[in-house]
Amino acid sequence: MCGIFGYVGGKQGVKIALEGLKKLEYRGYDSAGLAAVVNKELVTCKSVGKVAALEQKIEPFDAPLVMAHTRWATHGGVTEENAHPQWDEKRTLAVLLNGIIENFQSLKELLQQEGVYFVSETDTEVIPHLIARAYEGDFLKAVQEAVTLLKGSYAISCIHKDHPDEIVVAANGSPLILGVGIEETFVSSDPNALLCHTRQVIYLSHGETASVKAKRVEVFDATKTEVSKKIEALSHDAEAITKGAFEHYTLKEIFEQPQSIKNAMLLRFFEDFGTVSFENFTLPAHKLLEIKRVLIVACGTSYHAALLGGYMLEDRARLPTQVEISSEFRYKNPVISDDTFVIVISQSGETADTIAAMRELKAKGAYVLGLCNVQGSTIAREVDSCLFLRAGPEIGVCSTKAFTSQLTVLSLFALFMARMRHMSKIEGQQFLHAMLALPLQIEEILKQADKIEEMAERYSRYDHFFFVGRRYMFPTALEGALKLKEISYINANGYAAGELKHGPIALIEPDCPTVALLSDKVTFEKTLSNLMEIKARHGKIIAVTDKVEPLKGVADEIFELPSTYDELAPILSSVFCQLFSYYVAKKRGAEIDKPRNLAKSVTVE
Questions:
Q1: What is the pLDDT of residues 394-416, one digit of tens each?
Q2: Which are the catalytic amino acids?
Q3: Taking the mean position of all CA atoms in its chain, how far away is CA 357?
Q4: I need a labelling partner for 448 at 20 to 30 A (CA). Which of 138, 210, 294, 398 fits?
Q5: Structural domain containing residue 517
C-alpha cells in the first residue's frame, strides 16, 4: 500500500524522484522519505505527512541516484523513525518497502541476539540489517541472499553508498515496474508514475530481483539465474493522470464515466446478433457450455460489483453463482468441481487477498478469468484470461469509474453466457441497446450535478446515513454507503430494505437520513412499503428512482433517474451516489482524493 519511486541517470534525481512520488501518493500518505548517494555517502531525509512536507524539509541537492517512498503505516505508528528509508547500523545502505514482512519478529530477535540495535518499530528495518550481514562487496548478491529469509508479500528497493550507480530491487507478490529511458532508468510501484518520462516498461514477476543502472537492467529469477524480460509499452499518456479543469481527481473520474463505459464496450459486441465477443478469452465454447457453477472472488468495491455480477449471471444465464470476499475465502478450503468457472475482480490487479485466493483456486485446478484495469499487473499476468476494464488510470482513492466499468464488463459477460444458452437474439439485441444507451443516460445525470450538490449541502450536517434497496439495488446500496464512508467519514450503512425491521430500524430517527434506491422494478412496491415504515418513524428519505409519482408525499427529496433494465440500473444509481458523496465530503471539508487511513491499492493483508 506504500509507494516506491527510484531514479538513476542524470543530475536531477531528487526533483524527478519527488515528482514521481507525488503521483504515487494515493498509495499512502502517512509519511514520506528519500535516500540518495552523493560522493559515496548515504544522504537521507524523512518527514511525517504528505510528500509536500518532505519537499519543504529537504535541502536541494543534485544526485544521479535517488529513491523515495510514501508510506501507509502498518507496523509502527506515524513517526519519522518509522518512515522510510530504513538503514543499517553503519548507514551504508538504505531500503524502501511496500508490503509486509510476516516473519520480521523472529528475524528481529535473531539479529538482536547478534547485537544489532533497532531504532524503529517497522518490519522493514530487518531488511537493511540482513543485507549488511550478507554484504561482501557484491550488493546484488547480498540483497538476493537477504530476501531468501523473508516471508510475506513485498517489493523492496535498496541503494548502497559504495554502489552509487545501482539500485537493487526485489518483487515478491507486490508490484514493481522498471521504466526504461535513454541513459536513465526508473523504478515505480505504479506504471502511471512513469508516463512523464517513458512508455517503455518492464514488469517484475513474483520472486524476481534486478540490478538497475542508468544504461542497463539485469533481472534474475528466484534461483538467481538471469532472465530475459520483455519491454512493454504503456497504453495511455500523461494527460490521463492529470486533474485537468476539475478540482479533484474523484470528480474528474465521475465525469469520465460516459467515455469509460464506451471504452469497456468497444469492439466487444455484435449488435446484429445480440451477442458478445471478448478478445484474448481462451476457454473454448464447448468448455463454456460445460460450466455448471460460477464463483466470483473480490474485495471492497469490486466485491459489490461481484454481487451484482452474480445476480446477472443467475438471472440471465441461469448459472448458480457464489460470491465471496477474498479476505475470507482465502482461508477456506473450497470445493472446486471440474464444472466450476472462477472470476476474480480487482481494479488494480494487485489486491493481496484476491491474488492469494486466485493462486489457491488455480492450485486446485480451476480456470480463472480476471477482470482488471491495469495491464501488466499480477492478476493480469497470472489468470488464464483477463478482460480489461479500459477505464484508464483511476487516481482518486475511492473507486468510481472503475466500478461502473466492472459492472459494464460483467453485464457483457452475463449476456455472452446467456446467449450461449437460452437467450434469444431479440432479447440479446434489446439488452445491448439498453447498454449502448448508458453513456447518454449518465450524461443526463451529470448535467444535474448542481441539483445533487444543493441536495448534498442540505444533508451534509448529518453524521449517520442509511442506504437501502432490494435485489439489484441492495449491492448498489452497499456501494453507495461505502462511497459516503470513504470520502466524508460519515457512518453510512447499506442494508437490504427488507432487513430493516430485523434490527436496523431501531436506529431510524430524524437525524439519520435514508438514501433509498428504487430503480429495481421487480421490488419497487416492496421497497416503497419499507419507506413508509421509515417515514412513520420520522426518518428523512432521499429517493433515487425512475418512478417519481408514487414517491410524492413519501420522500423528502426525489432525484429522478433515466429508466433502464434492472440489471443496468445500478450503474445509473451509483453515479448519483458518487456525486452525492463527493459534494457532501466537499461541504464537510474532507480530503476527497486521499481520504484518511486509506490507500488506493490494497497490497497488504
A1: 888 899 999 999 999 999 999 99
A2: 2, 600
A3: 16
A4: 398
A5: 447-593
